């Protein structure tokens, strides 16, 4: 049956023992399930490293294949201000998965309401190996501070009935109180070699011809994001490798924007850059990624001394954009700052010659 | 009929009696002139003059009418009396001639008489108008002596006999007028001149037609006039002692003439309200046509909104509502009241202090329009003034419009009333400060909108000076001018400030005015003017008598000004967004973009602070927000006027973001659970969507499905299943050109492709392919729905024996059915036996119908609520 899936979904390991990389970690996780005292977990790592895969493997290890019988349910609840909210949840007999940040700043209500409800009920199926349920919360780093504070009490109070597995890209925005209550598991991105190995493996099963160079190129271009690597490989095969390896459009767009900035430093170019930035933001590209990709491209023509300055500036503005609300202000401020530095640099060069 | 019409009519009404009197008086005058003329027998024209005088009613009217067509009338008369002239040789005196004339007139055919009568009527009216005009002119010469007035009228009279446009029969001197028209002036004999002058001297001594009375009357009139003046003085002076009263009320204009507001505005309002006369007072069809003629010229002149003066079928003006808008303190309310009173209405005011729900509005409107005030003895009709309407709820305003248009739903009480809806027959004046309130939008479409211009500073200063003089506040013109300007020509606040200074009891100087913060209202400026203040460096104004220090606008002043403007506006977020979106198009000095960097840092700062304030409720940071605007003003400000656009980018971005989120959400919602468990939102947008868009476009041959090879079929199936996994489908849509296209739904292409201008490398499937895929997706979906059903059934089957180990007979009905089906599907022999034994037992115990069921793939299901209660489910599998 699962033969008709995307490669990325098709070759996803279902068992801890089948994982392709970080095998030590896998055994550690396996051991964790053997003992009765399973802790709360906080799994974090970059995109496409296999966090969710590991979580699902772990659950399967604990509860058996029943965890894969997922069903969707819509949970509804009311906020204190009497607003009705709905949130999608995925649940099996043994666990429930929720992304509380779906409801924005009302995530605290989700934590308080929904999680409490789940946590308060005992595990129904006595035949299962564990006598607790698992709540998987995704995108924990997007949770508001309120919600995180609500969570920390819940974690302790209902520890008898449920364990919480948190999933985040980065733990910098997770409050220390939660971090200390969890066993933090970092899932690093696979190395390029690992990515190549997996790609080759997949290619051989799929019976397509993947050359070493191509595999290498994909591994580099995917930035060690395994999901992206597999998607890229599949996309390039669908298109018969005519156009080379496709890159995500937003990445290309950011590069174009960087070129505009490097080409001309003026108010007009700043205005056109702003339009591009708006476009990126409205299409859901997070500002961190815009900063990162933009910076990479902007640093290319700079020498090390100026480059250091610019990286520092970028860090400052990115920090502010995380602190603040309107990403566009900070992004544009960074662009202006870069233009200011860069035009100074260009003038120096002109004088030098 | 009510009093207080417009000026023309006012005269007609007020002096109606006098008018008649004067009419008579003039007729009475004639004999005098005749007697005068009778002295002049030797002149050839005598006979004519006499004859004319005798032809009494007609001629007098003709004479009055001379402005219109002096010559024609003249000829007409001479014609009419043609026959008489011959018999004029004997000096019979007027009586006999009159008789004679009458006789002859009778002898003539009756047509002529009728004609004459008609003419009489016409002439009568014209003469009336003539009189009004003349009287008005006279009334303006208040200070002129009555004697001179008499004299002038007399002179006018006399001129008719002594001046002519065509060559007269008497001796004359020809003169060319300034408009190059020939005028013939009669030459009198010296004796006559002497006689005449004597007579005039005598008359001026008081011996006129009225004789002694004239002097008395004149003196009486003078006395009355002076009394009136005194009264005016008194009415204004009396409240002076009354310290309780606010000056604003004290010096409120009490007459139309005292209004300080722009004259054209006053006029147009008055005109509008006069249009209601037809329906309200049922009078005056005659002045209207005059207005219609006048209007176009005036409109062009004043460049105001066109007042449509045509009436509708009910006799109401085209605009039923007048909407006065303008900043506070200019006298809008005052004008509305004045105009309504002037036109003879009783003012029924409804303002923000009253309840303005729809119901309250309804009762108020009905009361005002359908009833007359009983207490008011003058019994005037109501005029509704809705003050501060911009604050009213939009539902009320909608009701008002409906009501006025006569489309308001009328409750059918007893059937008969429902037939004709009440139409509003009273003028409604609405007053608002901000004409751009969204609630007023529908009102503006139907109402006659009058924008209230500002009062000129000089005019206001003049008035202030006058009041200051009355109140014995020592001040001078310059200070008042400054005051007027400081308060942006707000009359009310000016008066309040002046009142305040009076309380301080010291002379008001220019510096006082500038320094005082009294009366600085929290003035709400429009968004655009706030932006204007930020982007523009104001040039210092040169005012007479101003300190030199004040002439230069220092940075400090600029800062204060911006701070004040911004903080009084309050909505930092919107103003800030406006600045952000407008500054790239501004022209300002900036080398190396350093200033822009600084300004953008401030944007970042405001963002951080406003997040603290609005999301974390840390309001103590509020005061810091406004300083960013100062910085922006310093960086972006320029002395030139620059075009400012309304910021839309931020809003559009917000909308687009929402759309993007909706697409992602929709995909998430429909994704197969096994796939969704591993997907995060962010990786969907970053990795999956862009690449998925390239994966779902394999090359297919454009042939029908059954021609595909097994490999191709597999590929198609894979594509279909991927698309289902990610909840994608092709949906047929009709384009505007009428062709059909298949579109990806949800359209992830929208949020993935950025550079729409350049050609991107994303291919699309051809139309037949898409069609094929769409069909296959539907098929596959159906199959999938079918599949889990079967699984569930089997699952339950597995469980049932475990769950109930109870005797079979107690089994509920539906479980039995399920078991019965199991019989067929069972394959594993070990379990089968076990079940088989039980089931067979069951079947034997149960009735026949249940035992029959398993033999058939089709079964019947009862659905509650359907009228075709029995439905037949046919499985896709069975169709294959």
TrEMBL record, chain A:
The lineage of its organism: Eukaryota, Metazoa, Ecdysozoa, Arthropoda, Hexapoda. One of its GO terms (molecular function) is DNA binding. One of its GO terms (cellular component) is nucleus. It comes from Brassicogethes aeneus (Rape pollen beetle). SUPFAM superfamilies: P-loop containing nucleoside triphosphate hydrolases, post-AAA+ oligomerization domain-like. Subunit of the RFC complex, an heteropentameric complex consisting of a large subunit RFC1 and four small subunits RFC2, RFC3, RFC4 and RFC5; the RFC complex interacts with PCNA. Forms an heterotetrameric complex with RFC2, RFC4 and RFC5; this complex has ATPase activity but is not stimulated by PCNA. The heterotetramer of subunits RFC2, RFC3, RFC4 and RFC5 interacts with RAD17. Interacts with CNTD1; this interaction facilitates crossover formation. It is found in: Nucleus. Keywords: DNA replication, Nucleus. Belongs to the activator 1 small subunits family. Subunit of the replication factor C (RFC) complex which acts during elongation of primed DNA templates by DNA polymerases delta and epsilon, and is necessary for ATP-dependent loading of proliferating cell nuclear antigen (PCNA) onto primed DNA. This is Replication factor C subunit 3. Its main location: nucleus. GO terms for biological process: DNA repair; DNA strand elongation involved in DNA replication. The keyword Transmembrane helix does not apply. The keyword Lipid biosynthesis does not apply.
TrEMBL record, chain B:
Keywords: ATP-binding, Cell cycle, DNA replication, DNA-binding, Nucleotide-binding, Nucleus. The keyword Cytoplasm does not apply. SMART domains: AAA. Residues 23-68 are annotated as: Disordered. The keyword Protease does not apply. InterPro entries: AAA+_ATPase (IPR003593), ATPase_AAA_core (IPR003959), CTF18-RFC_complex (IPR053016), P-loop_NTPase (IPR027417), RFC_lid (IPR047854). CDD domains: AAA (cd00009), HLD_clamp_RFC (cd18140). GO terms for molecular function: ATP binding; ATP hydrolysis activity; DNA binding. GO terms for biological process: DNA replication. GO terms for cellular component: nucleus. Gene3D superfamilies: 1.10.8.60, P-loop containing nucleotide triphosphate hydrolases. It is found in: Nucleus. Its main location: nucleus. Transmembrane segments: none annotated. Residues 318-454 form the AAA+ ATPase domain. Belongs to the activator 1 small subunits family. CTF18 subfamily. This is AAA+ ATPase domain-containing protein. It comes from Brassicogethes aeneus.
